[in-house]
Specification:
With about 260 residues, the protein is α+β, with helices and mostly antiparallel strands. The protein has two domains: about 160 residues, Four Helix Bundle (Hemerythrin (Met), subunit A) (Up-down Bundle); about 70 residues, Nonspecific Lipid-transfer Protein, Chain A, CATH 3.30.1050.40. Helix content is about 50%, strand content about 10%. The protein is built from nine helices and six strands; from the N terminus they run αααααββααβββααβ. It has a four-stranded mixed sheet with strand order 4-3-5-6. Strands 1-2 form a two-stranded antiparallel sheet. A hairpin with a 2-residue loop joins strand 1 and strand 2. Helix 3 crosses helix 4.
């Protein structure tokens, strides 16, 4: 069953543009420090190496320019909130393209520099209202940029996990947008008001059918930090693992989210 339609959250377009650019800049700075052995190291993403992961981050940002090359669709049919539920269908193609880009671009920094240069030029030339023919459906550039915060934050975390000692920063605005979009995706997947999910300082959503909370302390509460939430939502960590490590607090009979996670494959 597709997730229920939910009114999409609004984002500050100027801040999102700056956040996407800044997070990609953090990744570029980190890539410059990596040697051949680190680039060949495994990641937690199946058979991907660090080199494959880096190529994918370039592909994720470069998608903006690729979609801008296409004719503008006549009308909007999707929002950023639709995107998390559409990614699994494209997984095989994404994997193939990421590996090919890694093979075709032996200098990762040069590849990312070219992607960044073109992205900056395209951003300067197009307003947020410009519609893109994305794989999820026609959506405004401003909405698609919100989805890029998820790509960049998630894969920054993957890179930090893969390379011991590497500490690529998480841009605050990018981390906030990523957290909020994935929290809203949970609320869309399991609509209701029985459970309150708190991800301070960025998001609070209600979800799951049942008695709606109106005042006082909710009977069912889940609380975690932004990075743990993002890892749960994207399958980097399981619900059981997060609870066992005390990374999640859950109270109430409807506070077990294990059947709803991950949100993205």
């Amino acid at each position: 069953m597709p997730p229920a339609k939910k009114r999409a959250r609004t984002y500050d377009s100027v801040k999102i543009r700056a956040a996407v650019s800044a997070q990609f800049g953090h990744l570029r700075d980190a890539v410059r420090t990596l040697g051949p052995e680190q680039l060949a190291a495994p990641t937690r993403l199946g058979e991907w190496t660090v080199r494959d992961l880096i190529a994918h981050t370039g592909m994720a940002l470069g998608a903006v320019s690729r979609f801008l090359e296409l004719p503008e669709p006549p009308r909007q049919q999707a929002t950023a909130l639709d995107w998390p539920f559409a990614t699994a269908a494209n997984a095989a193609g994404i994997d193939d393209m990421s590996r090919r880009l890694a093979r075709d671009h032996p200098d990762p920094d040069a590849y990312l520099a070219a992607v960044e240069s073109r992205f900056s030029a395209d951003l300067a030339a197009h307003p947020g209202a410009r519609l893109l023919a994305t794989n999820t459906g026609p959506m405004p550039l401003s909405d698609y940029l919100v989805t890029r915060t998820v790509e960049l934050i998630v894969h920054t975390d993957d890179l930090n996990d893969a390379v011991p000692g590497l500490e690529v920063p998480y841009e605050r605005q990018a981390l906030a947008a990523c957290t909020r979009l994935l929290a809203d995706a949970l609320a869309a997947k399991a609509p209701g008001g029985a459970t309150e999910v708190r991800i301070p300082p960025y998001a609070v959503v209600q979800c799951i059918e049942g008695p709606r909370h109106t005042r006082g302390t909710p009977p069912n509460v889940v609380e975690t930090d932004p990075l743990t939430w993002i890892r749960l939502a994207t399958g980097r960590v399981t619900w059981a693992e997060a609870v066992e490590r005390a990374r999640v607090g859950a109270s109430g009979e409807r506070a077990d989210l294990s059947g709803l996670l991950p949100l993205m494959g």
